[in-house]
Write a structure and sequence with these properties.
Chain lengths: ~140, ~60
């Protein structure tokens, strides 16, 4: 099985401790628009959630998108959905198509979750080394 | 064995918090930031960067 490794991304907090989180770089595409962003790998998320600030740059017109609420650990947010696709850095050509929820006040650029990401990759969180390991799920034999 | 393979973004500042940031391709440096993604993308042009949002350092998160 072919594994790729991604270092967690760390920032120094106000107490002098470095906080590392499991981000991977993805290239989100909608139509002919593409943007590379860091996506937080979130096993608690049902699917892909994108900061609404990315919608315009992806050519997505919010007024034409169906509304949808997103419920999380800190409350409920109003958003909208749109079809997008993305590729994970290091897995060129392995395109994931999904319907993402766009919300305006997401603290991160993007979350990738169960339906879009974890169904496509075997995911190993190795927090002790601050590394995430990914491997494509092998195709089933017919 | 415990070996830190994490990537440290070295120059995150208070002024970057809750804004869009363009990270260098190796994700070790904030090259620029803005409250508005479109403004930031115009500034960065065709540079090979990764866009992210800088989380406030004094806040814990649960998504």
């Amino acid at each position: 099985m072919d594994w790729k490794e991604y270092g967690y991304l760390g920032v120094l907090n106000n107490t002098g401790v470095i906080i590392y989180r499991p981000y991977v770089t993805i290239c989100i595409q909608s139509g002919d628009k593409r943007i590379s962003v860091d996506a937080l790998v979130d096993s608690g998320s049902d699917g892909m959630v994108i900061h609404a600030g990315l919608a315009k740059d992806l050519g997505i017109d919010q007024s034409k998108c169906p509304p949808k609420s997103l419920s999380g650990a800190t409350g409920v947010r109003d958003g909208f959905t749109s079809a997008v696709s993305y590729e994970v850095d290091g897995f060129r050509g392995y395109t994931i198509k999904t319907t993402a929820i766009f919300v305006p006040d997401l603290p991160v650029a993007c979350l990738i979750g169960q339906e879009d990401f974890f169904e496509k990759f075997i995911v190993q969180f190795k927090k002790h080394n601050n590394v995430l390991r990914l491997s494509k799920i092998p195709k089933k034999n017919s | 064995m415990k070996t830190n393979k994490g990537i440290l973004v070295k120059n995150v500042e208070k002024t970057h918090e809750n804004k869009w940031a363009a990270l260098s391709a190796d994700r070790t440096k904030v090259l620029a930031s803005s409250a508005n993604l479109r403004t930031l993308r115009k500034r960065m042009g065709d540079a090979k960067v990764v866009y992210t949002r800088i989380l406030p350092v004094d806040t814990s998160f649960a998504f």
